[in-house]
Amino acid sequence: MSTLTFHAVSDADIAAARKRHPKAFGDPLVTTLKAASWAFITIYLIWSLGFFEIGKLLNASDRAWALMTRMVVWQDMATWQYANIYKGIAQTIAMAFVGTLLGTIFALGLAFLAARNTMPVGVFRHAVRRLLDVFRGIDQIVWGLVFVRAVGLGPLAGVLAIWVSDMGNLAKLYSEAIENIDRKQVEGVRATGADTGRIIRYGYLPQILPVFISLSLYSFESSTRSATILGLVGAGGIGMIIIERFRAGLFDQVAFVVLNVLVVIAIIDWGSGLIRKRFIGERGH
Transmembrane stretches, by residue range (predicted)? Predict the structure, then answer.
């Protein structure tokens, strides 16, 4: 077996090797396209930065420092109306819980109508999916504004916004879980002569229960944070207290409220971890 040395390689040999193994030498067109793509991304990024007026960060440093100082230095704590603050936090938790509960219940029913293996009528299935796209495609803040306009200021608007938003998101995820189940268990239940209700109860639900619990708990955690934001648009909860204190320049109270919200979210996350560990064997975070 002869060894090919570099000085023995001619242009004809290189051309022949390039023809036999074109990918080993790289495609000039692909290389050019990659370089053009990176150049376009770089130029677009630099151009986009012009919208953000980054120079304002340098001018706002003094104001930002003063704002942070007022948040850290707490004054006149005896006059902070703690009852209203903790009532708002309780209202926020209730909004998230009721909204998530309603969204979970309705999402489970819609999921069976949107899943391919439980809804054989294609036209109806696609209609349900498009409806879910509408629920998911509109941001929760927008739903909050819609329901504030429809039912007025207060937590009811927040509950409705969380309900509609969570229903669309969860129904989509539940339907995917239903489509990926083991069909042998369903066929086994059907072979016993069970009706549709029992097939769903004993064939489908046991398989999707871990996903159902995990997604529902995550949705509750997420909705607790969302309920805080919804209050900023008038949908009740602690968010309304935050925006009122912020407008009044009471930044120390804003910091206090935010810290309390973070503690509540941490407790909910811890409790959700215990429930996951109890029912589906998942370790808490």
Answer: 35-52, 89-115, 141-164, 227-248, 254-275
